[in-house]
Amino acid sequence: MSRQTLINLSQGRHYGDLKTWLKLSAAFGVGLDELVGPVWEDSSSGETRATATARRAHD
Fold this sequence. Notes:
Layout: H1 3-10, H2 18-28, H3 32-40, H4 49-58
């Protein structure tokens, strides 16, 4: 994985694919849920973005 890919991920210019996130998870020695968990949190309510999106789609 290139340095530029890491920079783009950290700055939100690129979201990566599952393969990228699995590589990062292995490299950092953390579970995938721990690695991407903060990305999905909605700071205003504590609800995950995925849950909020699913809820809105259902309404």
